[in-house]
């Protein structure tokens, strides 16, 4: 499995508008072969051990795919072009997006203790 992340540097004051765009998304990716799931992550801070941790200004959009080929087919589809056609205003962003792709080499889930 692969995970594609798009870290999006949202400008201060545009967070609510950015999140609203995802509420109304077309939902086209869900129907593509090889798609596993989508997660949209909002940045958070945490007070721990007398310090503030986190606090990134990046939102992260994660898509999980069975393999790289499935992701590439999505990016070459008409649905991909349609899903990305209504671009947000440039002032919504404080910098360029950061694209990353990772291969899942290990997962862990809660174990049951008896």
**Discrete helix count:** 3
Estimate what percentage of residues fall within beta strands.
25-35%
Fraction of residues in helix:
10-25%
Q: Which residues sit in consecutive blocks of at least 5 with pLDDT less than 50?
A: none
Largest sheet features: 4 strands, antiparallel
Describe the structure.
It is a single chain. The radius of gyration is 17 Å and the shape is flat. With 114 residues, the protein is an alpha+beta fold. The chain has helices at 15-23, 68-75, 78-83, and strands at 2-9, 35-41, 45-48, 51-54, 58-65, 98-103. It contains three helices and six strands; from the N terminus they run βαββββααβ. It has a four-stranded antiparallel beta sheet. The protein has a domain at 13-58 and 66-91: 2-Layer Sandwich (Alpha-Beta Plaits). β3 (45-48) and β4 (51-54) form a beta hairpin.
